[in-house]
Amino acid sequence: MCVRIILFFIALTATCHGAKAQEKTVGLKYGNMDSWVTRTIHESAVIGGDDKTLYEVGPARHLDGNTPYHNLGGSPWGTSNVMAKVSGIVKTNNTVYREKRGGGYCARLETHIERVKVLGLVNINVLAAGSLFLGDMTEPITGTKNGEKYQNWGVPFTSHPKALRFDYRFKASGEPDRIKLTGFGGSSKVKGKDKAIVIFLLQRRTEDAAGNITAKRVGTMVVTYDTSTEGWRNGATYDILYGDIRHNPKYNPETMHLRSVDYARNSKGKNVLVKETGWASSDEIPTHMLLQFTSSHGGAYIGSPGNTLWVDNVKLVY
Fold first, then answer.
1. 249 CB-near residues (< 8 Å, 6+ apart)
2. What's the CA gap between 88 and 183, in Å, rounded?
3. pLDDT on residue 144
4. CB-based contacts of 77, cutoff 8 Å, min separation 6
């Protein structure tokens, strides 16, 4: 009997080692966060005339001037760092930063309050969360309403990875509730602790003759963080759930539900709302991959200043 038990554990160990050896990881382009574009934007004199640095994930390059940014070097990454031009006034927002980590860099995403001063007065205060996502932004931003329409969400993708893997670190603001600050009027309290959130979706999209985009959900992974970590969590791995997951015990209806808030660029070059109409079968081939890391989870203009999420070494596991 003892010999049989020993042989069983030897066989089990060999099987486990074999499974581990078969695992394959594929890093997303520029997903090691070691290469960045830096941009120097010259804000308008009426709001101080400062030179501001914006960071974008892409080839190591510096750009100087108030020119709308387009992803360089085939980078799939967009950020919430943007140049806005409203009524002729150039203003920037930077909530994603390049930060040293070991011999390279990582991304630091922060939630903060962006202030616009005109003639020495604070005219507009807006809460802005740090967001790093697959896609791009359409610059310049021309208003504070419906900021999501400037985002082109997702990149073409046709595979079925098993999991998403990345290194992360998180610092919570420590506030018991969040605030909503849109730039119009004062702030209001939003109940509930702020969380960083990571959203990974696979969609099968369809565009009609009018340019409208609908999608079926193929794969889903969403995770939130509300407790500060002590240092880095390396190689955090999260399984991707396929098909209709509403009866899966891991399904969270608050964060994994079908979405109709994201925009994407259609074949006519216009950003349109993407409406998810249902759940695809688990073996359906996706057309697009969406991935977003955000320092606050409540949506536009909602969060807690000080929430900070660090991200590095983003990979897909097969």
1. none
2. 18
3. 63
4. 30, 56, 57, 58, 71, 132, 133, 134
